[in-house]
TrEMBL record:
This is Uncharacterized protein. Gene3D superfamilies: NAD(P)-binding Rossmann-like Domain (3.40.50.720). Keywords: Oxidoreductase. The keyword Oxidoreductase applies. InterPro entries: NAD(P)-bd_dom_sf, SDR_fam. SUPFAM superfamilies: NAD(P)-binding Rossmann-fold domains (SSF51735). Transmembrane segments: none annotated. The keyword Oxidoreductase applies.
Length: 274
């Protein structure tokens, strides 16, 4: 990604932060009580996912943290801070179709319903290669995996009176050059010599595909009272930000601490689906 695009993103971040502070003071006005609700947060062990899990738990929600790493310390932290003991961790590896199906089978068998599914887990531009399913790692973890998971959990979502699905997106989606003409050649690159341009292209493509997925799921699931949205959380200081490149760490690191993650949750109980 060019330096110009990165500076353009910085301007976007500053404008968004200013508007957020101006109109909301960085806080959500939602007072929704989520007692009796069950939510799944993928990648809920750290970063944005942990903040979302913490917020859901503070509203009384039962939270299932689905992650590839052990979430016990994060769960203890959430319970200590929210006094909500109804937090559990379950293993999922979005880089494995087999593991995604295993997770979904467990949920569908043991949970009466799922009220909220937040497809938050993702990887950045520094992870490349292919998965055991012979898919590009970034594309599978960021898009193919969440798409499959959502599809497999539709019956559990239907069991809720008003389920919500969130695909956590990124402004990077709108920098993607993906189109019907080039989709076959650039959507799932497997063997290539690593360079920054290709790495960012794959990340951008994965996030754009999530926007499309949210739109299609929204159309098809609306009749079942399942509300589907894609949400851009803005610039947030996470592990992905630190590992992106030196410009992100040095230039963006100074401002992203100012952003509030609770903005993501505005969409969960919104009346209008995308």
């Amino acid at each position: 990604m060019s330096v110009f695009i990165q500076y353009l993103y910085l301007v976007y971040c500053l404008v968004k932060w200013f508007l957020l502070r101006l109109f909301t003071n960085g806080r959500s006005d939602s007072v929704a009580c989520l007692e009796g609700k069950t939510a799944i947060v993928t990648g809920g062990n750290s970063g944005i996912g942990l903040a979302i899990s913490m917020l859901l738990a503070s509203r009384g929600c039962r939270v299932i943290i689905a992650d590839v790493v052990d979430a016990r310390k994060s769960i203890e932290n959430i319970i200590e801070r929210t006094k909500n003991k109804n937090i559990v961790g379950k293993y999922i590896n979005l880089a494995s179709i087999k593991e995604i199906r295993k997770f979904a089978d467990d949920i569908n068998k043991n949970e009466k319903k799922i009220d909220i599914l937040i497809n938050n887990a993702g990887i950045g531009t520094t992870t490349q290669g292919s998965t055991e399913d012979e898919l590009n790692t970034v594309m599978q973890v960021n898009y193919f995996g969440p798409f499959l998971l959502t599809h497999l959990l539709i019956d559990s979502l239907k069991s809720s009176d008003s389920a919500r699905v969130i695909f956590v997106g990124s402004i990077m989606a709108f920098m993607s050059k993906l189109s019907p003409d080039n989709m076959g050649t650039i959507l799932n690159l497997l063997d290539f010599e690593f360079n920054t341009s290709i790495a960012y292209m794959l990340y951008q493509n994965s996030k754009l595909c999530n926007v499309f997925a949210a739109q299609e799921f929204a159309k098809k699931l609306r009749k079942h009272k399942i509300n589907v949205n894609s949400s851009d959380p803005g610039a947030v200081l996470t592990y992905l930000t630190y590992t992106a490149n030196e410009l992100y760490e040095g230039l963006f690191g100074a401002i992203v601490r100012m952003f509030k993650i609770t903005n993501v949750m505005f969409h969960i109980y919104g009346e209008v689906s995308v």
